[in-house]
Amino acid sequence: xxxxxxxxxxxxxxxxxxxxxxxxxxxxxxxxxxxxxxxxxxxxxxxxxxxxxxxxxxxxxxxxxxxxxxxxxxxxxxxxxxxxxxxxxxxxxxxxxxxxxxxxxxxxxxxxxxxxxxxxxxxxxxxxxxxxxxxxxxxxxxxxxxxxxxxxxxxxxxxxxxxxx
Length: 165
Prior knowledge:
This protein is α+β, with helices and mostly antiparallel strands. 15% of the residues lie in helices and 27% in strands. Mean pLDDT is 75; it is low at 1-32.
């Protein structure tokens, strides 16, 4: 990915998050909802940027970002372009997580994960790549491959009212 494309992906995430970007007011499939109809959350997928964005079905504001690293040996390899993210994780300018970092690098910056990982099997019994491990932190989830490479990062805000994602 070129430097311009990297800046573009970061700009898209930054602008959408800070503005609480509202989508087009539709159901994600281009159809408007009528009153009384359940509003379902929906994704916009930006394969060329390596980003998925989850929108709230009622408010049409961003709920989550999924940043894909496109690692070799992951079930989604070649589905997404690698998102060249840089996440600032603390007050110190050196406390950052990059798309090319390993799980050990993330733990040096973020500290040990507060709990045991969840095992993600990718939904198919014929997946030759094996499971990935999902580690949670406040406002972030890291999907890690068996070799320690990052597969994806999910960013979200914890709702202060009910402490849920």
